[in-house]
Amino acid sequence: QVQLVESGGGLVQTGGSLRLSCVVSERAFSIYNMGWFRQAPGKEREFVAAINWSGSTTTYKDSVKGRFTISRDNVKKTLFLQMNSLKPEDTGSYYCALRNVVSAVVRTTPSDYDYWGQGTQVTVSS
Questions:
Q1: CA 34, CA 52: separation in Å to the nearest integer?
Q2: Which of 49, 68, 76, 102 has the highest local Cβ count within 10 Å?
Q3: Under 8 Å CB-to-CB from 62, ≥6 apart: which residues?
Q4: Which residues of 36-54 are buried (b: 16+ CB within 10 A; e: fewer)?
Q5: What's phi and psi for 18, nearest 5 deg?
Q6: How would residue 94 be classed by pLDDT, with cut points 50, 70 and 90?
Q7: Which residues are 38's β-sheet partners?
Q8: Bridge partners of residue 81, in order along the sequence
Q9: What are the φ and ψ backbone dihedral angles of 44, each rounded to 5 degrees?
Q10: CB 78 within 8 A of CB 6
Q11: Predicted confidence (pLDDT) per residue in 99-125, tens digit
Q12: Can you tell me the distance from the alpha carbon of 30 to that of 98, in angstroms, rounded to the nearest whole number?
C-alpha cells in the first residue's frame, strides 16, 4: 500500500511563506509523476502544481505561477511545494498525489492520480 504523508501547513499572514513536504512510501517513487492539489471548504478539489518523474517538467495553476514552486527529491522520496507571497485565496487543505502510471505527460486532473495523502491545512489571514 502506497502511503503519502504531508506536512508543513499552518497559519500565516498575507504575504508570508510556507513549505509543504510530502513523504512517499513507494519504492519506485522516482519513476512517477506527482502533483499538489487543494480544496477550500464547500469547493471542489483543484489543481495547484505538478511535476514529472525527473523534475525536469513542471506545470502550475495560473493563479500561483511565480509564487509557488514544486520540486522533488527522488533519493529522499519527498515532494515539496514552496509557497511565497501567500494570499487569503490560497487557504485550504493541500494534498499531494501520485500518478501510478509511467508517463511523460504531466496531468492536472484529480481523477488522473491514484494515491493521495491525508492533507495539510494552510490558512492565510488577511
A1: 7
A2: 49
A3: none
A4: bbbeeeeeebebbbbbbbe
A5: -145, 155
A6: very high
A7: 46, 94
A8: 20, 70
A9: -75, 160
A10: no
A11: 999 988 999 999 999 999 999 999 999
A12: 11
